[in-house]
């Protein structure tokens, strides 16, 4: 955010572009809001789940009766007890016609398939009693072999996660565009082949999951409060899973403390809570603990990527071939199979090429299911292509920036249809890169790198480049149809002009930290010409915001914010009719500026939009035949995705004696289109960078050979804090998106997508003089040290078992 | 994160605390700052029947001098240790190492005595106590006794304290003119040390006259790098220090976990010992 940008926006008098403080923060940071776990109602009962201690086992016997003897326990149920009240958990994305979709009971019935799979639930008067009573439940498990290695799982005689399905192969999903890869390979000077491993990550929303269900037994109505990103989708799905008619179900997402995709899910605990509340006629609550969440909340990433590129000796890309093994985990959850498919379209990134072949195989394992995690398929794709572009540069002795420049889409070529079939509407990769290089001091750092290498310094400098694009604004409904997704990608907004001239915006997005209330206020205030403070935003409750597709995939602003803009325009159109009537003028003779309608040429003849709102409320004098309301709604189905892009540059110092990596500087220039609130954009970029850097350096869900999660607490799963991260130098270029009225592109995932390859490229760049060509993520000090040692001794780096 | 049920008492005097501990025997756990015990309870890794909260017992907090010995109350928080002028003057190594413990929130509640009595070999302060030659004073039904740090740490999370004994103070010989350095190697700032090296160096005539080195997380207990200490005596240049540091891992038994192998820990111990000693020789 530059000062000039702030001033320009303020001088223009517009709200859009102003670094407004977030309206929602006062109540969030003072604790005056209601999180799901704060909700307390009379007679509330508490749930605790008994979870499998084994990765894979047949359940021979479950006896919950001893738990009923424990103090405070009201009821206890096994999966079989609730089987008639609960259908299977849904998967909304059958990516192929013949995808293998295993049964997924919310409480396991016959078999447990990952450590943490729930087998029984205790209902007690307080949380302590519920937790204590779990110890009394008796379960006999007959151990079955764990399935952990993605390649071994596909072998003929591999033990099966779902024996009834006869295979661990969930699906094969191919994409092929342009020439055959084999053909371009023939004429290539260089062919590179690399394997990259996307380690499993555990999303760490600050607020753990929680659910409260309050029944109204007399009328069969239920209110589900859940720390979810998707109240609207959850309502539909819980209705199906539990058999409660949709109109009898209200879902509320109170203030929600982060999700990163992990709350884009229909969880068994939500369904069980509803089923138990229904059976007992009593309100119930469940809140997960952090270590419980590590087992039971879905994970992210978990892929093996075999990547091949063919290029000329001048560094021009001819083709790209990607073979992906994607770890589904034990079950296909809401969008599990679709995550790698979202990535499929992003491997070609910003580059032109003649051939692209992609194939993904989804593989069942006896681990926690994977699903969306910040970026969802796109970080993995970006990592692979940006890593191998650096390898191409090294192979050809070219600067990594130069190799990218020789292949990227030039700004005058937009709109450009990528080889994967996406139409990139706008962008300027040259501008973002030039700006980033200048801010970074690229040439000076390269000089220092050379100097350290020549001196043989134990601490080497490495420079990593990542020029990314991504697809945001999920999604055009017809594209989703073609991808076999079960729903549309529209978003709804409506605007209520209140009699006193104040405004309520009702949105179908479901913010959980993003700042929608502030940004939607800015958008509506500008279109309606009302003060920012006069706008309130209502969200996250299917009763008060009944229509919506919720928040994920950097869609909220681009689709939902644009819907707010369109709805506000409709309000102005209606108000114009009333104003023209009141001013006895033709609508065509009216000007509307700053919330005031005035007759061209006679500025004294004016009505404010607030006056018009009141006149419409009384309806004493509105145009004949006009519906007496200014309120309007809009449901927007996007015509295209939006494509943020940018250039990230990372300088690391790698201590070759200890293997420790320190990020010395990090520069990013992002183009997220038109910016509504630069401070919120800055916050999204910082958080995204932190999560992307965390994948590169710190985080990994580690399983042992039996399939136990070893990194089961925050003491072992290392989420970095501010103290572990560098100062970020952030800047922007602004090439507006052409596919939505705001010109916005989305910013929720950009930092995460771009930063991981920038960091790893920098580490490898630092170690290239030693002969190192890759370090597996997370690049722990030991792995870096081992890579240097192995390269120095002329032996290959110690092979680690593929996950 | 729900602890199992336990009884709780908060004695007002040392005598009462010792009496309660004696009655409860092995079933009791002492609660000081709670920064180690509470996570163990919440993860259900510890199941004491009784938690004895010693936090309100007077006289166990603060730093004073007793002749040429520094006396630090067991309940002195990490934060207070870091900022205490006597500690900074006479036991700078302790202040420096304590400043690396976890994060500010933990340092405001966690205590020196609690950290030593917990005896986690990955904790920073046990190795520092070894290097400083601290004496740990315990009170039990039989009265007071003093245990040298070298005899205090018995095994992983095990000390010389009897179940009915309470650690009340840490006595550190005052050292002036010694250089010091705590080299902590960890992956994120809030995590435990993968390896730590606490070095104290006394120089004379341009050489290292004496070095004392404590190792964090190189075995089930904190250890002294005795071979390196002996080799360092008389070292006059960085090359000699490097050679001596090469024996820093001798006699250690580092563990394997998700973040490091024993071989790597041994390597780190050598590198960090060299660095710590060179830095300590510069700060003397």
Give a written overview of the molecule:
The complex is a heterodimer of chains A (803) and B (284). The longest helix of chain A has 28 residues, at 556-583. Chain A is globular and about 90 Å long. Chain A has 803 residues and is an alpha+beta fold. Among the domains of chain A are: 409-470 and 642-791, Aldehyde oxidase/xanthine dehydrogenase, molybdopterin binding domain (Aldehyde Oxidoreductase, domain 4), CATH 3.30.365; 490-636, Aldehyde oxidase/xanthine dehydrogenase, molybdopterin binding domain (Aldehyde Oxidoreductase, domain 4). Chain A has a seven-stranded mixed sheet with strand order 3-5-1-12-9-10-11. The longest helix of chain B is centred in the last third of the chain and has 22 residues, at 262-283. With 284 residues, chain B is an alpha+beta fold. In chain B, the strands form four sheets. In chain B, strands 4-5-10-6-7 form a five-stranded antiparallel sheet. Chain B has a four-stranded antiparallel sheet with strand order 11-12-13-14. Chain B has a three-stranded parallel sheet with strand order 1-3-2, covered by helices on one side. Chain B starts with 6 loop residues before the first strand and ends with a helix. Chain B folds into three domains: 7-50, Uridine Diphospho-n-acetylenolpyruvylglucosamine Reductase, domain 2 (2-Layer Sandwich); 63-173, Uridine Diphospho-n-acetylenolpyruvylglucosamine Reductase, domain 3 (2-Layer Sandwich); 179-283, Enolase-like, domain 1 (2-Layer Sandwich). Chain B has helices spanning 14-24, 37-42, 78-83, 85-90, 92-98, 104-109, 112-118, 125-132, 149-152, 226-232, 238-245, 262-283; strands at residues 7-9, 28-31, 50-53, 63-66, 69-73, 135-140, 143-148, 153-155, 158-159, 166-173, 179-185, 195-204, 207-216, 223-224. The interface between A and B is medium-sized, with 29 and 25 residues.
């Amino acid at each position: 955010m530059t000062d000039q940008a702030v001033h320009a926006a303020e001088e223009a008098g517009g709200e859009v572009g102003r670094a407004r403080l977030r309206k929602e923060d006062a109540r969030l940071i003072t604790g005056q809001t209601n999180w799901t776990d704060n909700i307390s109602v009379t007679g509330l009962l508490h749930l605790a789940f008994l979870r499998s201690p084994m990765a894979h086992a047949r359940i021979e016997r479950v006896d919950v009766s001893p738990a009923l003897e424990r103090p405070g326990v009201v009821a206890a149920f096994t999966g079989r007890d609730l089987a008639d009240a609960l259908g299977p958990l849904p998967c909304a994305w059958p990516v192929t016609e013949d995808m293998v979709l295993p049964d997924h009971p919310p409480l396991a019935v016959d078999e447990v398939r990952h450590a943490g799979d729930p087998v029984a639930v205790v209902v007690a008067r307080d949380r302590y009693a519920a937790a204590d009573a779990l110890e009394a439940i008796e379960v006999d498990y007959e151990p079955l072999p764990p399935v952990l290695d993605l390649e071994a799982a596909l072998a003929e005689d591999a033990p099966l996660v779902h024996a009834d399905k006869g295979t661990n192969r969930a699906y094969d999903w191919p994409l092929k565009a342009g020439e055959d890869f084999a053909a371009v390979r023939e004429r290539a000077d260089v062919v590179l082949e690399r394997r990259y491993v996307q380690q499993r990550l555990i999303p760490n929303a600050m607020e753990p999951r929680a659910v409260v269900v309050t029944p109204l037994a007399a009328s069969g109505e239920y209110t589900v409060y859940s720390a979810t990103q998707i109240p609207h989708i959850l309502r539909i799905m819980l209705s199906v899973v539990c058999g409660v008619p949709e109109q009898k179900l209200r879902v509320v997402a109170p203030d929600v403390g982060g999700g990163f995709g992990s709350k884009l899910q229909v969880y068994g605990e939500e369904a069980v809570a509803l089923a138990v509340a229904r059976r007992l006629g009593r309100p119930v609550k469940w809140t997960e603990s952090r270590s419980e969440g590590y087992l039971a909340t879905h994970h992210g990433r978990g892929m093996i990527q075999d990547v091949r590129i063919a290029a000329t000796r001048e560094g021009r890309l001819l083709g790209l071939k990607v073979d992906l093994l994607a770890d589904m985990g034990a079950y296909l959850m809401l969008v599990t199979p679709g995550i790698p498919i979202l990535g499929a379209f992003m491997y070609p990134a910003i580059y032109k090429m003649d051939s692209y072949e992609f194939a993904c195989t989804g593989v069942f394992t006896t681990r926690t299911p994977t699903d969306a995690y910040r970026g969802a398929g796109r970080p993995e794709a970006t990592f692979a292509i940006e890593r191998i572009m650096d390898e191409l540069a090294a192979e050809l002795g070219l600067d990594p920036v130069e190799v990218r420049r020789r292949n990227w889409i030039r700004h005058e070529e937009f709109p450009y249809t990528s080889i994967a079939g996406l139409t990139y509407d706008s962008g300027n990769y040259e501008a973002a890169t030039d700006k980033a290089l200048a801010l970074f001091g690229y040439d000076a750092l390269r000089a220092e790198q050379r100097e350290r290498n020549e001196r043989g310094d134990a601490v080497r400098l490495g420079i990593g480049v990542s020029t990314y694009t991504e697809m945001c604004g999920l999604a055009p409904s017809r594209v989703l149809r073609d991808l076999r997704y079960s729903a549309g990608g529209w978003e709804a907004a409506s605007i209520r002009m209140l009699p006193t001239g104040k405004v309520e915006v009702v949105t179908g997005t479901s913010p959980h930290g993003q700042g929608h209330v502030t940004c939607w206020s800015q958008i509506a205030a500008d279109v309606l010409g009302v003060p920012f403070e006069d706008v309130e935003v209502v969200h996250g409750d299917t009763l008060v915001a009944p229509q919506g597709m919720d928040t994920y995939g950097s869609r909220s602003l681009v689709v939902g914010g644009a819907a707010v803009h369109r709805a506000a325009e409709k309000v102005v159109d209606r108000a114009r009719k009333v104003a023209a009537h009141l001013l006895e003028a033709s609508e065509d003779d009216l000007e509307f500026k700053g919330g005031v309608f005035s007759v061209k040429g006679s500025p004294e003849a004016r009505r404010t939009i607030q006056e018009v709102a009141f006149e419409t409320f009384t309806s004493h004098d509105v145009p004949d035949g006009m519906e007496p309301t200014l309120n309007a709604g809009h449901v927007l189905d996007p015509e295209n995705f939006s494509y943020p892009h940018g250039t990230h540059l990372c300088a690391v110092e790698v201590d070759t004696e200890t293997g420790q990596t320190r990020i010395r500087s990090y520069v990013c220039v992002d183009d997220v289109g038109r910016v509504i609130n630069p401070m919120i954009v800055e916050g999204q970029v910082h958080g995204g960078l932190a999560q992307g850097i965390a994948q590169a350096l710190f985080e990994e869900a580690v399983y042992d050979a039996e399939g136990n999660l070893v990194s089961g607490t925050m003491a072992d799963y290392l989420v970095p804090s501010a103290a572990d991260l560098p100062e970020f130098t952030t800047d922007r270029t602004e090439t507006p998106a052409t596919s939505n009225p705001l010109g916005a592109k989305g910013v929720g995932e950009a930092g995460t997508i771009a930063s991981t390859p920038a960091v790893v490229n920098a580490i490898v760049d630092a170690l290239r003089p030693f002969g190192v060509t890759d370090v597996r993520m997370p690049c722990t000090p030991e792995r870096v040290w081992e890579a240097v040692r192995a390269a120095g001794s002329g032996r290959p780096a110690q092979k680690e078992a593929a996950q | 994160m729900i602890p199992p049920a336990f009884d709780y008492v908060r004695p007002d005097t040392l005598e009462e605390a010792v009496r309660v501990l004696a009655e409860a025997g092995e079933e009791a756990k002492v609660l000081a700052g709670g920064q180690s015990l509470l996570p163990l309870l919440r993860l259900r890794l510890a199941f004491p029947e009784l938690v004895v909260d010693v936090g309100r017992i007077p006289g166990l907090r603060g730093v004073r001098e007793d002749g040429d010995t520094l006396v630090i109350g067991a309940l002195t928080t990490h934060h207070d240790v870091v900022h205490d002028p006597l500690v900074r003057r006479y036991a700078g190594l302790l202040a420096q190492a304590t400043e690396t413990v976890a994060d500010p929130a933990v340092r405001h509640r966690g205590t020196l005595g609690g950290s030593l009595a917990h005896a986690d070999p990955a904790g920073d302060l046990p190795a520092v106590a070894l290097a400083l030659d601290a004496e740990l004073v315990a009170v039990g039904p039989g009265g007071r006794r003093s245990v040298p740090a070298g005899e205090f740490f018995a095994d992983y999370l095990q000390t010389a304290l009897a179940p009915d004994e309470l650690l009340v103070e840490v006595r550190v010989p005052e050292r002036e003119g010694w250089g010091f350095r705590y080299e902590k190697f960890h992956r994120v700032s809030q995590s435990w040390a993968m390896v730590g090296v606490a070095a104290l160096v006394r120089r004379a005539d341009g050489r290292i006259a004496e070095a004392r080195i404590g190792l964090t997380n190189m075995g089930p207990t904190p250890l002294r790098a005795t071979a390196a200490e002996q080799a360092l005596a008389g070292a006059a240049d960085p090359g000699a220090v490097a050679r001596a540091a090469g024996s820093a891992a001798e006699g250690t038994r580092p563990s394997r976990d998700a973040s490091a192998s024993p071989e790597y820990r041994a390597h780190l111990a050598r590198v960090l010992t060299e660095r710590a000693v060179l830095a300590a020789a510069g700060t003397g």
